[in-house]
Specification:
Order of helices and strands: EEEEEHEEHHEHHHEEEHHHHHEHHHEEH
Oligomer: single chain
Radius of gyration: 22 Å
Number of helices: 15
Distance between the termini: 14 Å
Helix content: 25-40%
Strand content: 15-25%
Strand order of the largest sheet: 5-4-3-2-1-6-8-7
Number of strands: 14
Largest sheet: 8 strands, mixed
C-alpha cells in the first residue's frame, strides 16, 4: 500500500512499436499529461507529449530514433520531469498497465509479481500480437521504478462473469480445456466503464440496469451487461470474432480457412493476415475510415455502400441477439471512435427496431459532444445513448483502488 499523499497513477498501454501514456491525479480524476511514442525501433520514431496540469499546455514533439521500449519510457520520464511530474515523485502511487489477455485466472486488477508475469507470458499463444508488447512495457517500467506497485488491468477481466453457456465453444471439452479454447472477450475496461456511466446517465445504479454496449472503433465489440455484470460479448478466443471491424472479418464460417488452404493454397500465416488485416471494411471497399466510407457513399460509390450495409447488418444482428439474451434492455449505448462520432452509423443501426422500443431522435443524434448523452426521443421505451469511453481513467481508477485498498485481486 502506498502513502496517503500519493494520488497519481501513470497509465501505460504498450504496443509492439508504440507506448500510449497518461498521468492522472485521482483526487479529481484529472489528467496531468498525455502522450504517445510511436515507431519504436525505427529511425523515424516520434514522441508527442502534451502537459495538461492547470490547463492544456503547448504540445511538444521529439523525432529521431528511439531504439526500444526502455529508451521510450526513459524519454517519457524526461518529458514528465520537464513539467515537474517526474517518475521519481513521491506523489506517484502506481503504474497501471493495460494487458490484453488475462485468461480465466485474472478477473480483477492485479499487482504484478514474477508469478503474474509468468502467467501473462503463458497466455502469449492466445494473444500473440498483444501480450508480448504488454510484457515489454511492464518489465521496462519495473526496471525504472522497482519500488513502485505495478498493476495489470486486463481487457478480458470484465467478461469473466459470462456463464459457461456463453463462454464455451461447442467443441470437444477435453481439447478445449487442454488448449484454453473458449470465449474470453476484449475491450473489457471500455465495456466496464461505459456500462457504469450509462447507468449513471439513467439515474440508476449499475445493478439496476441491463445495457447493450457497442464499442465501435477500428476494433469493434458488443456486450450484454446485466446488472453490472457481462453475460455475453462478441469477441472470443481472440479479437477476430464478432462484429465487422476496420480490418478484421468478424464472424466467419471456420471452414473458410480450410477452403482457402485447400483451394487457394494459402498458408496459415496468409489466412491469418487476410482475416485480421485485409478483411472487414478495408477488405470490402479499401477503406477502414468510416468518414471516408460515408464520403464515398455520398458520391455514389457502390462498394462503399455495400461495406456500410454489411457493417450495419452485423451490428443489428448483435443488438437483436443481446436483446434476447438480456430479456429486458434499459439502454443501447454507443462508444469509441465510430460509435461516438458517426451519427449515420447510430441512425442506421437502430432504424426499424421500433417494435423493440428503440428509436433515435435525428436532432439529438446530429449533435456532436464530448459528454455522455441520450439520443433517443422521450417516448422511446429503451434509451439510446452515446457515452464517450475512457479506458485510461478506468485503468487508473482500478489501479489506484487496488494499491490503496491493499487487496490483490
Amino acid at each position: 500500500m502506498t502513502g496517503t499523499t500519493a494520488t497519481r497513477v501513470l497509465v501505460l498501454n504498450s504496443g509492439s512499436s508504440s507506448v500510449k501514456y497518461q498521468l492522472l491525479d485521482m483526487r479529481g480524476n484529472s489528467r496531468l499529461a498525455v502522450g504517445l511514442v510511436e515507431r519504436i525501433g525505427e529511425a523515424s520514431s516520434r514522441l508527442v507529449h502534451t502537459p495538461l496540469q492547470g490547463g492544456e499546455g503547448a504540445r511538444r514533439e521529439r523525432t529521431g530514433a528511439i531504439a526500444d521500449h526502455a529508451a521510450a519510457l526513459k524519454a517519457v520520464a524526461e518529458e514528465l520531469a520537464a513539467d515537474g511530474l517526474g517518475l521519481d515523485s513521491p506523489e506517484l502511487a502506481a503504474i497501471g498497465h493495460r494487458v490484453v489477455h488475462g485468461g480465466l485466472r485474472f478477473s480483477a486488477p492485479t499487482v504484478i509479481d514474477d508469478e503474474v508475469l509468468a502467467e501473462i507470458e503463458r497466455l502469449v499463444p492466445v494473444a500473440p500480437l498483444h501480450n508480448p508488447a504488454n510484457l515489454t512495457g511492464i518489465r521496462t517500467a519495473m526496471a525504472l521504478r522497482p519500488d513502485l506497485p505495478q498493476v495489470a488491468v486486463f481487457d478480458t477481466a470484465f467478461h469473466t462473469t459470462m456463464p459457461e453457456s456463453a463462454a464455451r465453444y461447442a467443441i470437444d471439452v477435453e481439447t478445449a480445456d487442454a488448449h484454453r479454447i473458449r470465449r474470453y472477450g476484449f475491450h473489457g475496461t471500455s465495456h466496464a466503464y461505459v456500462s457504469r456511466e450509462a447507468a449513471k446517465l439513467l439515474g440508476k445504479a449499475p445493478e439496476e440496469v441491463n445495457v447493450i454496449v457497442l464499442h465501435l472503433g477500428n476494433g469493434a465489440s458488443a456486450s450484454a451487461v446485466r446488472g453490472g455484470r457481462c453475460v455475453d460479448t462478441s469477441m472470443g478466443l481472440t479479437p477476430l470474432e464478432g462484429l465487422v471491424m476496420g480490418t478484421r472479418s468478424g464472424d466467419i464460417d471456420p471452414a473458410v480457412t480450410f477452403h482457402l488452404k485447400r483451394v487457394a493454397g494459402m498458408s496459415e500465416d496468409e489466412v491469418d493476415v487476410l482475416l485480421n488485416k485485409r478483411s472487414g471494411l478495408v477488405g470490402l471497399c479499401g477503406d477502414n475510415d468510416m468518414r471516408e466510407i460515408r464520403r464515398r457513399i455520398e458520391e455514389g460509390d457502390e462498394r462503399a455502400r455495400l461495406a456500410f450495409d454489411i457493417y450495419i447488418h452485423r451490428l443489428r444482428k448483435y443488438i437483436g441477439a443481446y436483446y434476447a439474451v438480456l430479456g429486458r434492455v434499459d439502454a443501447v449505448v454507443f462508444t469509441a471512435g465510430v460509435g461516438e462520432n458517426a451519427a449515420p452509423v447510430r441512425e442506421a443501426a437502430i432504424a426499424g427496431l421500433e417494435e423493440l422500443g428503440l428509436a433515435v431522435d435525428a436532432g439529438l443524434n446530429a449533435v456532436r459532444s464530448d459528454e455522455a448523452r441520450l439520443i433517443s426521443p422521450e417516448y422511446a421505451r429503451v434509451a439510446v445513448a452515446v457515452v464517450p469511453t475512457d479506458e485510461e481513467l478506468e485503468i487508473a481508477r482500478q489501479s489506484y483502488a487496488l494499491v490503496h485498498g491493499g487487496v490483490n485481486a
